[in-house]
Amino acid sequence: MKRAGWLVAVLLLVSAGAWAKKEDEPRSHFASEISYARAFYGDPVYAKVFDDDFMWGGLINFTWYPIRNLGLDLGIGTLYGAGHALTRTGRASGEDVELYVLPGSLGLTYRFDFLNEQLVVPSVSAGGDYWAYRENNAFSKRVEGGKNGYYVKGGLGILLDWIEPDSSFNLQDDFGIENVFLELGWTETWMNQEGLNFSAILYQAGFRFEF
């Protein structure tokens, strides 16, 4: 965590010198992102129940930029896993189990976007989490609840406008989309609480649209 904090501080200092280079391009005020995600849990019980140590799903993020490059980020999504309940001895039983998780997040995002039509744009994010969940078991009472915690995230955006420049003008005229990115992300979340432990590492891949 300390290393991550120092890295963010250095990158922010570097960004101050590059600020003026971006002024020629109209800044984005809003962005939306849709991505596929896999959540890998550290708790070994997930691998025993679901035969894998991950759940798959999708995430949607909305970002509002009150100032250039620094945004307020809201994320929502869904994760799903299916497997078998465990006996008291830790072995899989014949009871089917389904787990639905609805992760939510609110935080700040900084994108290191300094040049007009910059091809590769790194980003860092941090904030708070709230994950609601529901566990369905045909032989037991349904379990529902929620967990809260915090997260850090690193991202890398690859600008796609250069692939077909004419199409970017159509997107801007028709939908107000300034830029389209292939967005890759890595998120670590900490929620070590009583019961289910949703502390995990998420890998994401999707598309980001800037307006």
How does this model look, in words?
By secondary structure, this protein is an alpha+beta fold. It has one domain: Porin (Beta Barrel). An eight-stranded antiparallel barrel has the order 1-2-3-4-5-6-7-8. The longest helix is centred in the N-terminal third of the chain and has 17 residues.
Blueprint (SSEs and pairs):
Layout: H1 2-18, E1 30-41, H2 45-50, E2 54-67, E3 70-86, E4 92-111, E5 120-137, E6 143-159, H3 165-175, E7 179-190, E8 200-210
Total beta strands: 8
Mean pLDDT: 81
Q: Please give the largest β-sheet.
A: 8 strands, antiparallel, barrel
How many discrete structural domains? 1
Instruction: Look at the helices and sheets and give the structural class.
Output: alpha+beta
Q: What's the architecture in CATH terms?
A: Beta Barrel
CATH class reads: Mainly Beta
What characteristic shape results from the CA principal axes? elongated
Bin the helical content.
10-25%
The oligomeric state is: single chain
| Proportion in β-strands | over 45%
- CATH fold-type name: Porin
- In the predicted model, the low-confidence regions spanning at least 5 consecutive residues are 2-20
Number of helices: 3
The value of Rg in angstroms is 20 Å
Q: For the largest sheet, list the strands in their spatial order.
A: 1-2-3-4-5-6-7-8
